[in-house]
Amino acid sequence: MPQLRLRREKHHIGIRSIGDSLTSLKARTTTSIKSRTSGYQLTLQLGITSHIAYQPDSEIDISNWNLPANTPLADESFYRTKRIDLLLGTEAFYGALAVGQIRIGPNLPTLQKTLFGWVVAGRYQRQYSRQPPLCLATVEESIDKNLQQLWKVDSFVDPSARMLPNHRRCEDHFRDTTHQDVSGRIVVRLLFQEDPSCLGSSFDTARTRFFAIERRPARLPEIRSHYISFMQEYESLGHMSLVLNPNLEEPHYYIPHHFVLKPSSTSTKLRVVFDASCRTTSQRSLNDLLLVGPTIQDELYLQLLRFRMHRFGITADVTKMYRQVLVSEKDRKFQYILWRASPNTDLQTYQLNTVTYGTASAPFLATRSLHYLAEDCKDAWPLGAAAVKTAFYVDDLLCGADDIDTLFKLKTEITSTLARGQFPLCKWHSNHPGVMEDESTKELNISENSVSSTLGLTWHQRRDAFSFTFNPKEVYPTTTKRTILSTASSLFDPIGLLSPLVIVSKIILQELWLLKLDWDESVPQNLSHAWSKCLESLNSLSSLAVPRFCLQPDTRSIQIHGFCDASIRAYGCCVYVRTENSLGQVTVKLFTSKSRVAPVKKQSLPKL
Fold first, then answer.
1. By the 8 A CB rule, do 362 and 350 touch?
2. What tens digit of pLDDT does each residue of 22-42 get?
């Protein structure tokens, strides 16, 4: 048995396991387990508990199972009553699965091949003296993330009110350590809040996870080809480089990586994600040691509202924004990765030379680098520098002007300001044909964490109007809490143009929580009917168009009209802009609206 080093938890974590047994996790450890039939080894982080799961109260009779002789079992005595020593999580379990399956016979389990050896899995019919206890568990991480985003879109926080003491440290560190190299590219240092010497070993974990992800694309040749192309481009652009003799005696960190698919993307269908939150043997990760930094960009809500104030709108994207910022050579040892293009070659160490998406300080470092250029160029190009500092949301530019000359000057100065730091711009969109790069529409589903949206916001340049598309990821045959939540939680309406529809979905979500329904339990008829009507309204959104420009040319007077109302279920407000031009023509356009579900008790709710 390997030696275990325990780490005591400050707070106990309660775990309800198979057999409805409740235990308290008080310590953690990291150790390696090995196959008894091969050289396969797996390093895991384990929670220490006195009791894991329900144990069979009698041995299983396998005398008539006829187990094949050429299938070495991971556990030869699986049928005996004994203590369960270790319970693998799904990530480790599926990574250990291998190709191979044998059916023993009718009403008998199946033999499944794993890297530890063959295991017995499946249903075995036998008579129990008592009803066996059941335990079901589910994790809905993607739904939970979308649900948080649904409510986060309605929130507005003044960036100055979010400043913390560590934020000042980040700003001072950036000013003291950042410089530009001979090509003009910005070079930054990582923002450590603790001594990196407390990092433990990360090589084994990164290697294990690489092997697991390497097996996945091997079964899908097209995905593997995209993965290899992505990494080869990473190296050819100088964003990563080979490390022949990494010094593993000094503090360092290997970042595990995997790929995510985004079929809706017009540019990159596959993107590689780097997991700097993966723990080392000291139970500390790189992200644990890095400062996050403050949010120094304006909220998307404000960006879109300002975007509606210009007669001529203009948008663009920074190409590979994070990867245009170099990380100092002194800190690249904390951005090691393992990579090889073919299983037939040796696994090699590479270092990531640029700011890496997935590290805690990456958003601040990349955004602050734009501000660094704006401060440096404010005298040479004041119009462009001001736009660089105020009109970016992550890597998306949203700005505009009220006359053509200013529009072209704005584009020129923004391009010149960013070119000084080697930040190329692409995908120019505008309602003025002289600036328009192509005639495609601009998707405004802007989100730094790439939360998918069922409700899409699009800007049509020629019509200069916003339109909406409703594209649910799945069509469900039955209406349950899970199906409603999956669709409703991914509605994206940042400036509230569809509040009357989105608020209905939030009210339905509120009722689902009050009813305390199970995930896959059919909802009551009144909720099912209300959800069907909500879907009908969402499906008809393609015929709706909202003008982007909320004023009118040659405006001589502007009035703001606000309305608010409330009911027992919800409350909200909307703002209209009334303008009059020099000819006396009057227009009234919806500027923004917000709505919230009212806190209520189930007994006081009228039926939907």
1. no
2. 566 667 788 888 887 777 788
